[in-house]
Amino acid sequence: MQWLKLKLPFIYLICTVTWATAWANLERDPNGYLTYCPCMGRFGNQADHFLGSLAFAKGLNRTLILPPWVEYRKGEMRSRQVPFNTYFDVEPLKDYHRVILMSDFMWHLADDVWPESERVSFCYMERKSLQQDKNDPDQPNCHAKDGNPFGPFWDTYNIEFVKSEFYGPLHFDVHHSTMATKWQSKYPAESWPVLAFTGAPASFPVQLENRELQKHMQWSAKYRDAARDFIRKVLPRGAFVGIHLRNGIDWVRACEHVKDSQHLFASPQCLGYKNERGALYPELCMQTKESIVRQLKRTIKNVRQTQPNNEIKSVFVASDANHMIGELNVALSRMGISVHRLPEDDPYLDLAILGQSNHFIGNCISSYSAFVKRERDSHGFPSYFWSFPKEKDRQQSKAHEEL
Ligand code: GFB
Protein backbone atom coordinates (compact mmCIF):
# COMPACT_ATOMS: atom_id res chain seq x y z
CA MET A 1 0.00 0.00 0.00
CA GLN A 2 2.84 2.31 0.97
CA TRP A 3 4.42 1.46 -2.37
CA LEU A 4 1.29 2.53 -4.25
CA LYS A 5 1.09 5.81 -2.29
CA LEU A 6 4.61 6.67 -3.32
CA LYS A 7 4.01 5.80 -6.94
CA LEU A 8 0.61 7.49 -7.32
CA PRO A 9 1.89 10.99 -8.20
CA PHE A 10 4.22 9.42 -10.75
CA ILE A 11 1.41 7.36 -12.34
CA TYR A 12 -0.76 10.49 -12.40
CA LEU A 13 1.99 12.43 -14.17
CA ILE A 14 2.47 9.71 -16.81
CA CYS A 15 -1.27 9.56 -17.47
CA THR A 16 -1.51 13.35 -17.79
CA VAL A 17 1.42 13.50 -20.19
CA THR A 18 0.05 10.64 -22.32
CA TRP A 19 -3.41 12.19 -22.37
CA ALA A 20 -2.05 15.66 -23.21
CA THR A 21 0.14 14.22 -25.99
CA ALA A 22 -2.80 12.37 -27.52
CA TRP A 23 -4.90 15.51 -27.53
CA ALA A 24 -2.10 17.77 -28.70
CA ASN A 25 -1.86 15.58 -31.81
CA LEU A 26 -5.55 16.08 -32.39
CA GLU A 27 -5.51 19.84 -32.50
CA ARG A 28 -7.47 21.35 -35.34
CA ASP A 29 -5.47 21.86 -38.54
CA PRO A 30 -6.13 25.43 -39.73
CA ASN A 31 -5.20 24.33 -43.27
CA GLY A 32 -8.18 22.02 -43.44
CA TYR A 33 -8.83 18.35 -44.13
CA LEU A 34 -9.51 16.04 -47.02
CA THR A 35 -11.63 12.92 -46.83
CA TYR A 36 -12.83 10.49 -49.49
CA CYS A 37 -14.54 7.17 -50.00
CA PRO A 38 -12.27 4.47 -51.50
CA CYS A 39 -15.32 3.41 -53.44
CA MET A 40 -13.68 1.90 -56.51
CA GLY A 41 -12.41 -1.67 -56.68
CA ARG A 42 -10.76 -3.89 -54.15
CA PHE A 43 -7.46 -3.56 -52.33
CA GLY A 44 -5.09 -3.01 -55.29
CA ASN A 45 -7.28 -0.28 -56.75
CA GLN A 46 -7.77 1.34 -53.38
CA ALA A 47 -4.03 1.33 -52.70
CA ASP A 48 -3.30 3.03 -56.03
CA HIS A 49 -5.93 5.62 -55.19
CA PHE A 50 -4.58 6.05 -51.70
CA LEU A 51 -1.13 7.09 -52.95
CA GLY A 52 -2.67 9.64 -55.31
CA SER A 53 -4.93 11.02 -52.58
CA LEU A 54 -1.97 11.34 -50.23
CA ALA A 55 -0.05 13.35 -52.84
CA PHE A 56 -3.13 15.46 -53.53
CA ALA A 57 -3.63 16.24 -49.82
CA LYS A 58 -0.01 17.29 -49.58
CA GLY A 59 -0.34 19.44 -52.71
CA LEU A 60 -3.31 21.23 -51.13
CA ASN A 61 -1.58 21.30 -47.74
CA ARG A 62 -4.58 19.71 -46.05
CA THR A 63 -4.47 16.88 -43.52
CA LEU A 64 -5.50 13.62 -45.14
CA ILE A 65 -8.17 11.73 -43.22
CA LEU A 66 -7.12 8.07 -43.53
CA PRO A 67 -10.15 6.16 -44.78
CA PRO A 68 -10.85 2.61 -43.72
CA TRP A 69 -10.27 -0.06 -46.39
CA VAL A 70 -13.48 -1.13 -48.08
CA GLU A 71 -13.90 -4.89 -48.23
CA TYR A 72 -16.48 -7.16 -49.77
CA ARG A 73 -17.39 -10.51 -48.27
CA LYS A 74 -19.18 -13.26 -50.13
CA GLY A 75 -22.92 -13.22 -49.47
CA GLU A 76 -22.93 -9.81 -47.77
CA MET A 77 -24.91 -6.98 -49.34
CA ARG A 78 -22.98 -4.18 -47.67
CA SER A 79 -19.26 -3.52 -47.75
CA ARG A 80 -17.23 -3.80 -44.56
CA GLN A 81 -15.01 -0.93 -43.51
CA VAL A 82 -11.72 -2.00 -41.95
CA PRO A 83 -9.70 0.66 -40.10
CA PHE A 84 -6.68 1.87 -42.06
CA ASN A 85 -4.25 0.91 -39.30
CA THR A 86 -5.36 -2.73 -39.24
CA TYR A 87 -2.97 -3.26 -42.13
CA PHE A 88 -0.63 -0.25 -42.17
CA ASP A 89 1.10 1.89 -39.58
CA VAL A 90 0.07 5.53 -39.40
CA GLU A 91 3.37 7.00 -38.18
CA PRO A 92 5.54 6.37 -41.33
CA LEU A 93 2.96 8.26 -43.40
CA LYS A 94 3.59 11.33 -41.26
CA ASP A 95 7.17 11.48 -42.57
CA TYR A 96 5.57 12.57 -45.81
CA HIS A 97 2.48 14.50 -44.77
CA ARG A 98 -0.07 15.14 -42.03
CA VAL A 99 -2.65 12.35 -41.68
CA ILE A 100 -5.28 11.36 -39.13
CA LEU A 101 -7.35 8.17 -38.78
CA MET A 102 -10.95 8.71 -39.82
CA SER A 103 -12.22 7.43 -36.47
CA ASP A 104 -10.00 9.91 -34.58
CA PHE A 105 -11.15 12.75 -36.78
CA MET A 106 -14.82 11.84 -36.38
CA TRP A 107 -14.74 11.24 -32.62
CA HIS A 108 -12.50 14.11 -31.59
CA LEU A 109 -12.64 16.86 -34.21
CA ALA A 110 -15.70 16.57 -36.44
CA ASP A 111 -18.15 18.32 -34.09
CA ASP A 112 -15.93 21.37 -34.09
CA VAL A 113 -14.39 21.28 -37.61
CA TRP A 114 -17.20 19.70 -39.60
CA PRO A 115 -20.59 20.19 -37.93
CA GLU A 116 -23.45 18.13 -39.33
CA SER A 117 -25.05 21.17 -40.97
CA GLU A 118 -21.91 21.83 -43.05
CA ARG A 119 -21.23 18.43 -44.55
CA VAL A 120 -20.95 18.91 -48.29
CA SER A 121 -20.04 16.13 -50.70
CA PHE A 122 -17.73 16.84 -53.62
CA CYS A 123 -17.99 15.28 -57.06
CA TYR A 124 -16.73 16.36 -60.49
CA MET A 125 -20.23 16.75 -61.91
CA GLU A 126 -23.75 15.60 -61.14
CA ARG A 127 -23.92 11.93 -60.22
CA LYS A 128 -27.32 10.48 -61.02
CA SER A 129 -29.03 8.26 -58.49
CA LEU A 130 -30.05 4.75 -59.49
CA GLN A 131 -33.42 5.54 -57.93
CA GLN A 132 -35.03 7.75 -60.57
CA ASP A 133 -37.28 9.58 -58.10
CA LYS A 134 -34.22 10.94 -56.31
CA ASN A 135 -32.99 12.77 -59.43
CA ASP A 136 -34.24 16.34 -59.42
CA PRO A 137 -33.20 18.32 -62.56
CA ASP A 138 -33.36 21.55 -60.57
CA GLN A 139 -31.16 20.25 -57.81
CA PRO A 140 -28.28 18.21 -59.21
CA ASN A 141 -26.61 16.11 -56.55
CA CYS A 142 -23.57 13.90 -55.93
CA HIS A 143 -25.75 11.22 -54.33
CA ALA A 144 -22.65 10.42 -52.34
CA LYS A 145 -24.34 7.68 -50.35
CA ASP A 146 -26.14 6.02 -53.22
CA GLY A 147 -25.34 2.33 -53.64
CA ASN A 148 -22.72 0.02 -52.16
CA PRO A 149 -20.07 0.79 -50.90
CA PHE A 150 -20.98 4.51 -50.96
CA GLY A 151 -23.76 4.30 -48.36
CA PRO A 152 -22.11 1.80 -45.98
CA PHE A 153 -18.83 3.74 -46.10
CA TRP A 154 -20.20 7.08 -44.82
CA ASP A 155 -22.70 5.27 -42.58
CA THR A 156 -19.77 3.76 -40.68
CA TYR A 157 -19.21 7.23 -39.21
CA ASN A 158 -22.86 8.37 -39.27
CA ILE A 159 -22.13 10.95 -41.96
CA GLU A 160 -25.00 12.52 -43.88
CA PHE A 161 -24.47 15.20 -46.52
CA VAL A 162 -26.59 18.34 -46.66
CA LYS A 163 -25.37 19.60 -50.03
CA SER A 164 -23.33 18.75 -53.13
CA GLU A 165 -20.49 20.67 -54.72
CA PHE A 166 -19.31 20.12 -58.31
CA TYR A 167 -15.61 20.83 -58.60
CA GLY A 168 -15.16 20.34 -62.36
CA PRO A 169 -13.08 21.34 -64.30
CA LEU A 170 -10.50 21.13 -61.49
CA HIS A 171 -8.57 17.86 -61.34
CA PHE A 172 -6.05 16.07 -59.12
CA ASP A 173 -2.71 16.24 -60.88
CA VAL A 174 -0.74 18.52 -58.58
CA HIS A 175 2.59 17.66 -60.22
CA HIS A 176 2.26 19.27 -63.63
CA SER A 177 0.31 22.50 -63.21
CA THR A 178 -0.83 25.13 -60.77
CA MET A 179 -3.78 22.91 -59.91
CA ALA A 180 -3.13 23.02 -56.14
CA THR A 181 -3.31 26.82 -56.13
CA LYS A 182 -6.56 26.69 -58.08
CA TRP A 183 -8.10 24.35 -55.51
CA GLN A 184 -6.86 26.55 -52.68
CA SER A 185 -8.28 29.73 -54.14
CA LYS A 186 -11.63 28.18 -55.03
CA TYR A 187 -11.95 26.26 -51.76
CA PRO A 188 -10.01 28.07 -49.00
CA ALA A 189 -9.75 26.18 -45.71
CA GLU A 190 -11.46 28.95 -43.73
CA SER A 191 -14.74 28.49 -45.58
CA TRP A 192 -14.21 24.85 -46.65
CA PRO A 193 -12.53 23.17 -43.66
CA VAL A 194 -13.25 19.67 -45.03
CA LEU A 195 -13.28 18.57 -48.66
CA ALA A 196 -15.24 15.30 -48.75
CA PHE A 197 -14.93 13.43 -52.04
CA THR A 198 -17.48 10.94 -53.32
CA GLY A 199 -14.61 8.89 -54.79
CA ALA A 200 -10.83 9.07 -54.42
CA PRO A 201 -9.24 12.34 -55.60
CA ALA A 202 -6.69 10.38 -57.59
CA SER A 203 -6.14 8.55 -60.84
CA PHE A 204 -6.06 4.83 -61.51
CA PRO A 205 -3.57 3.42 -62.10
CA VAL A 206 -1.40 5.42 -59.74
CA GLN A 207 0.34 8.40 -61.34
CA LEU A 208 4.01 7.72 -62.05
CA GLU A 209 5.16 10.52 -59.71
CA ASN A 210 3.21 9.03 -56.79
CA ARG A 211 4.52 5.44 -56.99
CA GLU A 212 7.40 6.20 -54.65
CA LEU A 213 5.03 7.19 -51.84
CA GLN A 214 4.63 3.48 -51.33
CA LYS A 215 7.65 3.57 -49.03
CA HIS A 216 5.48 5.29 -46.43
CA MET A 217 3.00 2.40 -46.42
CA GLN A 218 4.49 0.04 -43.88
CA TRP A 219 2.75 -3.09 -42.67
CA SER A 220 1.31 -3.06 -39.17
CA ALA A 221 3.12 -5.16 -36.55
CA LYS A 222 0.43 -7.85 -36.85
CA TYR A 223 1.14 -8.43 -40.56
CA ARG A 224 4.90 -7.92 -40.31
CA ASP A 225 5.06 -10.55 -37.58
CA ALA A 226 2.70 -12.96 -39.32
CA ALA A 227 4.72 -12.76 -42.55
CA ARG A 228 7.99 -13.26 -40.68
CA ASP A 229 6.59 -16.23 -38.75
CA PHE A 230 5.32 -17.92 -41.89
CA ILE A 231 8.65 -17.45 -43.64
CA ARG A 232 10.60 -18.75 -40.61
CA LYS A 233 8.34 -21.56 -39.52
CA VAL A 234 6.75 -22.90 -42.70
CA LEU A 235 9.21 -22.28 -45.52
CA PRO A 236 12.45 -24.26 -45.60
CA ARG A 237 15.64 -22.35 -44.77
CA GLY A 238 17.02 -20.54 -47.78
CA ALA A 239 15.85 -18.14 -50.45
CA PHE A 240 12.33 -18.32 -51.87
CA VAL A 241 10.49 -17.04 -54.91
CA GLY A 242 7.11 -15.40 -54.31
CA ILE A 243 4.65 -15.69 -57.17
CA HIS A 244 1.27 -14.12 -57.75
CA LEU A 245 -1.17 -16.15 -59.85
CA ARG A 246 -4.18 -14.01 -60.73
CA ASN A 247 -6.50 -16.48 -62.43
CA GLY A 248 -10.05 -16.26 -61.01
CA ILE A 249 -13.10 -16.01 -63.25
CA ASP A 250 -13.29 -12.21 -62.87
CA TRP A 251 -9.76 -12.05 -64.20
CA VAL A 252 -10.51 -14.31 -67.18
CA ARG A 253 -13.29 -11.90 -68.12
CA ALA A 254 -11.18 -8.78 -67.50
CA CYS A 255 -8.44 -10.15 -69.77
CA GLU A 256 -10.88 -10.14 -72.68
CA HIS A 257 -10.42 -6.36 -72.74
CA VAL A 258 -6.77 -6.71 -73.69
CA LYS A 259 -7.60 -6.88 -77.38
CA ASP A 260 -9.22 -3.45 -77.47
CA SER A 261 -6.93 -1.56 -75.11
CA GLN A 262 -3.55 0.12 -75.03
CA HIS A 263 -3.48 -0.25 -71.27
CA LEU A 264 -5.40 -2.32 -68.77
CA PHE A 265 -5.40 -1.69 -64.99
CA ALA A 266 -1.78 -1.68 -63.78
CA SER A 267 -0.15 -2.47 -67.15
CA PRO A 268 1.93 0.78 -67.22
CA GLN A 269 4.09 -0.80 -64.52
CA CYS A 270 5.75 -2.99 -67.14
CA LEU A 271 4.78 -1.43 -70.48
CA GLY A 272 5.45 2.16 -69.38
CA TYR A 273 2.85 4.90 -69.02
CA LYS A 274 3.20 5.76 -72.71
CA ASN A 275 3.65 2.17 -73.87
CA GLU A 276 7.34 2.94 -74.29
CA ARG A 277 8.16 -0.70 -73.47
CA GLY A 278 5.60 -2.19 -75.83
CA ALA A 279 1.93 -2.78 -76.58
CA LEU A 280 -0.48 -4.87 -74.55
CA TYR A 281 -0.75 -8.60 -75.42
CA PRO A 282 -2.96 -11.40 -74.03
CA GLU A 283 -0.27 -13.50 -72.29
CA LEU A 284 0.64 -10.53 -70.11
CA CYS A 285 -2.81 -10.85 -68.54
CA MET A 286 -3.41 -14.61 -68.56
CA GLN A 287 -0.66 -17.19 -68.83
CA THR A 288 -0.79 -20.89 -69.60
CA LYS A 289 0.25 -23.33 -66.90
CA GLU A 290 3.11 -24.47 -69.12
CA SER A 291 4.50 -20.95 -69.52
CA ILE A 292 4.28 -20.36 -65.77
CA VAL A 293 6.26 -23.52 -65.05
CA ARG A 294 8.79 -22.64 -67.77
CA GLN A 295 9.37 -19.12 -66.48
CA LEU A 296 9.60 -20.26 -62.88
CA LYS A 297 12.21 -22.92 -63.70
CA ARG A 298 14.16 -20.42 -65.79
CA THR A 299 14.14 -17.88 -62.93
CA ILE A 300 15.33 -20.49 -60.42
CA LYS A 301 18.13 -21.66 -62.75
CA ASN A 302 19.23 -18.07 -63.38
CA VAL A 303 19.42 -17.38 -59.65
CA ARG A 304 21.39 -20.61 -59.13
CA GLN A 305 23.94 -19.45 -61.68
CA THR A 306 24.18 -15.83 -60.63
CA GLN A 307 23.78 -16.20 -56.85
CA PRO A 308 25.17 -19.66 -55.96
CA ASN A 309 25.43 -18.69 -52.28
CA ASN A 310 21.75 -17.91 -51.91
CA GLU A 311 20.10 -20.85 -53.60
CA ILE A 312 16.32 -20.90 -53.94
CA LYS A 313 14.76 -23.63 -51.77
CA SER A 314 11.06 -22.95 -52.10
CA VAL A 315 8.25 -21.15 -53.89
CA PHE A 316 5.45 -19.28 -52.14
CA VAL A 317 2.24 -19.03 -54.16
CA ALA A 318 -0.40 -16.33 -53.66
CA SER A 319 -3.55 -16.61 -55.71
CA ASP A 320 -7.17 -15.55 -55.79
CA ALA A 321 -8.23 -18.90 -57.31
CA ASN A 322 -5.88 -21.66 -58.53
CA HIS A 323 -2.57 -21.94 -56.67
CA MET A 324 -1.37 -24.78 -58.94
CA ILE A 325 0.31 -26.40 -55.93
CA GLY A 326 0.12 -29.93 -57.36
CA GLU A 327 1.46 -29.02 -60.80
CA LEU A 328 4.24 -26.85 -59.39
CA ASN A 329 5.34 -29.46 -56.85
CA VAL A 330 5.59 -32.08 -59.59
CA ALA A 331 7.47 -29.71 -61.89
CA LEU A 332 9.95 -28.48 -59.28
CA SER A 333 10.54 -31.50 -57.04
CA ARG A 334 13.48 -32.67 -59.18
CA MET A 335 15.14 -29.32 -58.51
CA GLY A 336 14.69 -29.94 -54.76
CA ILE A 337 12.18 -27.14 -54.41
CA SER A 338 8.98 -27.26 -52.34
CA VAL A 339 5.89 -25.21 -53.06
CA HIS A 340 3.77 -23.53 -50.36
CA ARG A 341 0.69 -21.43 -49.79
CA LEU A 342 -1.21 -20.05 -46.82
CA PRO A 343 -3.52 -22.60 -45.17
CA GLU A 344 -6.36 -20.05 -45.32
CA ASP A 345 -7.18 -17.26 -47.72
CA ASP A 346 -5.68 -13.97 -46.52
CA PRO A 347 -5.06 -11.37 -49.25
CA TYR A 348 -3.11 -9.10 -46.91
CA LEU A 349 -0.81 -11.74 -45.50
CA ASP A 350 -0.20 -13.00 -49.05
CA LEU A 351 0.90 -9.47 -49.98
CA ALA A 352 3.11 -9.05 -46.92
CA ILE A 353 4.90 -12.36 -47.66
CA LEU A 354 5.32 -11.60 -51.38
CA GLY A 355 6.89 -8.30 -50.35
CA GLN A 356 9.55 -10.20 -48.38
CA SER A 357 10.42 -12.88 -50.95
CA ASN A 358 13.92 -12.98 -52.42
CA HIS A 359 12.47 -12.89 -55.93
CA PHE A 360 8.98 -12.03 -57.08
CA ILE A 361 7.05 -12.80 -60.24
CA GLY A 362 3.78 -10.92 -60.57
CA ASN A 363 1.04 -10.19 -63.06
CA CYS A 364 1.76 -6.90 -64.83
CA ILE A 365 -1.92 -6.09 -65.36
CA SER A 366 -2.95 -6.65 -61.75
CA SER A 367 -2.97 -3.77 -59.29
CA TYR A 368 -2.63 -6.37 -56.53
CA SER A 369 0.72 -7.41 -58.03
CA ALA A 370 1.54 -3.72 -58.49
CA PHE A 371 1.33 -3.16 -54.76
CA VAL A 372 3.99 -5.83 -54.21
CA LYS A 373 6.18 -4.47 -57.00
CA ARG A 374 6.14 -0.94 -55.58
CA GLU A 375 6.89 -2.15 -52.07
CA ARG A 376 9.82 -4.23 -53.33
CA ASP A 377 11.12 -1.36 -55.45
CA SER A 378 11.19 0.77 -52.31
CA HIS A 379 13.49 -1.83 -50.70
CA GLY A 380 15.54 -2.49 -53.84
CA PHE A 381 14.27 -6.11 -54.09
CA PRO A 382 14.05 -7.71 -57.56
CA SER A 383 10.71 -8.32 -59.31
CA TYR A 384 9.66 -9.75 -62.67
CA PHE A 385 6.38 -10.17 -64.53
CA TRP A 386 4.80 -13.23 -66.12
CA SER A 387 5.39 -13.35 -69.87
CA PHE A 388 7.30 -10.10 -69.89
CA PRO A 389 9.12 -9.25 -72.01
CA LYS A 390 7.20 -11.01 -74.75
CA GLU A 391 8.68 -14.44 -75.51
CA LYS A 392 9.62 -13.39 -79.08
CA ASP A 393 11.26 -10.14 -77.91
CA ARG A 394 13.14 -12.04 -75.22
CA GLN A 395 14.55 -14.50 -77.74
CA GLN A 396 15.58 -11.67 -80.06
CA SER A 397 17.38 -9.78 -77.32
CA LYS A 398 19.10 -13.01 -76.17
CA ALA A 399 20.29 -13.68 -79.73
CA HIS A 400 21.50 -10.09 -79.87
CA GLU A 401 23.43 -10.51 -76.60
CA GLU A 402 25.04 -13.71 -77.89
CA LEU A 403 26.25 -12.05 -81.10
O1 GFB B 1 -6.73 -5.94 -55.52
P1 GFB B 1 -7.45 -5.83 -56.78
O2 GFB B 1 -8.04 -4.52 -57.13
O3 GFB B 1 -6.43 -6.30 -57.89
O4 GFB B 1 -8.60 -6.90 -56.78
P2 GFB B 1 -6.50 -6.53 -59.48
C1 GFB B 1 -8.35 -8.26 -56.73
C2 GFB B 1 -8.73 -8.86 -55.38
O5 GFB B 1 -8.72 -10.30 -55.53
C3 GFB B 1 -7.74 -8.57 -54.25
C4 GFB B 1 -8.14 -10.90 -54.41
O6 GFB B 1 -7.96 -7.37 -53.57
C5 GFB B 1 -7.91 -9.80 -53.36
O7 GFB B 1 -9.06 -9.67 -52.56
N1 GFB B 1 -6.83 -11.45 -54.79
C6 GFB B 1 -6.13 -11.24 -55.93
C7 GFB B 1 -6.12 -12.27 -54.01
N2 GFB B 1 -4.97 -11.92 -55.89
C8 GFB B 1 -4.92 -12.55 -54.70
C9 GFB B 1 -3.97 -13.40 -54.07
O8 GFB B 1 -2.89 -13.68 -54.58
N3 GFB B 1 -4.28 -13.85 -52.83
C10 GFB B 1 -5.46 -13.57 -52.22
N4 GFB B 1 -5.67 -14.07 -51.00
N5 GFB B 1 -6.38 -12.78 -52.78
C11 GFB B 1 -8.72 -6.17 -60.84
C12 GFB B 1 -9.25 -4.83 -60.43
O9 GFB B 1 -8.04 -6.74 -59.76
O10 GFB B 1 -9.71 -7.10 -61.17
C13 GFB B 1 -10.32 -4.33 -61.34
O11 GFB B 1 -8.20 -3.90 -60.55
C14 GFB B 1 -11.32 -5.43 -61.72
O12 GFB B 1 -11.00 -3.26 -60.71
C15 GFB B 1 -10.58 -6.67 -62.17
O13 GFB B 1 -12.14 -5.74 -60.61
C16 GFB B 1 -11.49 -7.81 -62.54
O14 GFB B 1 -6.02 -5.34 -60.21
O15 GFB B 1 -5.81 -7.82 -59.69
From TrEMBL:
Say if the entry is tagged with keyword DNA-binding: no
| GO CC, one annotated term | endoplasmic reticulum
| InterPro entries the record matches | GDP-Fuc_O-FucTrfase, POFUT1
Localization, per the record, is: Endoplasmic reticulum
Question: What Gene Ontology biological process does one annotation of this record name?
Answer: Notch signaling pathway
Write down the Pfam families for this protein, in alphabetical order: O-FucT
What keywords sit in the KW lines? Answer: Carbohydrate metabolism, Disulfide bond, Endoplasmic reticulum, Fucose metabolism, Glycoprotein, Glycosyltransferase, Notch signaling pathway, Signal, Transferase
- What start and end residues bound the annotated signal peptide? 1-24
Which reaction is the catalytic activity of this chain?
L-seryl-[protein] + GDP-beta-L-fucose = 3-O-(alpha-L-fucosyl)-L-seryl-[protein] + GDP + H(+); L-threonyl-[protein] + GDP-beta-L-fucose = 3-O-(alpha-L-fucosyl)-L-threonyl-[protein] + GDP + H(+)
User: A GO molecular-function term, please?
Assistant: peptide-O-fucosyltransferase activity
- Supply the EC number(s): 2.4.1.221
Task: Give, as in the UniProt entry, the pathway in which the protein acts.
Answer: Protein modification; protein glycosylation
- Family designation: Belongs to the glycosyltransferase 65 family.
The name under which this protein is listed is GDP-fucose protein O-fucosyltransferase 1
- Native species: Drosophila guanche
